[in-house]
Amino acid sequence: MRDNMRIIWYLVSKGANVTARDNQAVIEATVRNNVELVEYLVSKGADITAQDNQALVEASKCDSMELVEYLVSQGATVTAQNNQAVIEATKRNNVELVKYLVSKGADTTAQDNQALVEASKCDSMELVEYLVSQGATVTAQNNQAVIEASTYGNMYLVKYLVSQGADITAQDNQAFIKAAGTYNHELLDYLLDQGADIHAQSDFCLDAE
């Protein structure tokens, strides 16, 4: 890493343009989670908001609170790309980073509540509860969140989403179909009690009985 820094310092000293290709260098530094290099490039004129704030999105993908905080301090827009940064943070189940981005104005309901769907994929009750507290809609994307929770056999998460209004019969009873694949009989019984149709789509669910 230090050798790479020396090379970059040398190239810049010889006149390399840090803003070339729409500031691609600072974005690549962010992809590599190299805070020192990002700070150096910014000091030489790199624009961290270039390419619709792609650097911030990459920092969220890197799961780096330090880098995200730095980019925001330099003017990065947390709502860029339809709030993609907070969705990336949610994919990585980083509750602290999600909360930070929300505190800076990120919208957890963006992209039809994709953050909530990703949190359900992460099997994260804490994150799901937080997103709902921030206004996420549990029925978004035709109740995809409860289907994702059922896919992982998470009884507590499914029950929570149902308590918040999720419909377990949505998408032709996909929650029950997915739950069958987990062989979680307690969850299957719960879904049936909530009105799931055991004969929906196919007889696949019967195999789990």
Automatic annotation (TrEMBL):
Enumerate the PROSITE patterns for this protein: ANK_REPEAT
Asked if the keyword Glycosyltransferase belongs to this entry, the reply reads no
**One Pfam family this chain carries?**
Ank_2
State the InterPro entries in the record: Ankyrin_rpt, Ankyrin_rpt-contain_sf
List UniProt keywords, sorted A-Z.
Answer: ANK repeat, Repeat
Entry superkingdom: Eukaryota
Spans of ANK repeats, please give: 21-53, 81-113, 141-173
Where would one find the signal peptide in this protein?
none
* Protein name in the entry: Uncharacterized protein
**Native source species:** Aplanochytrium stocchinoi
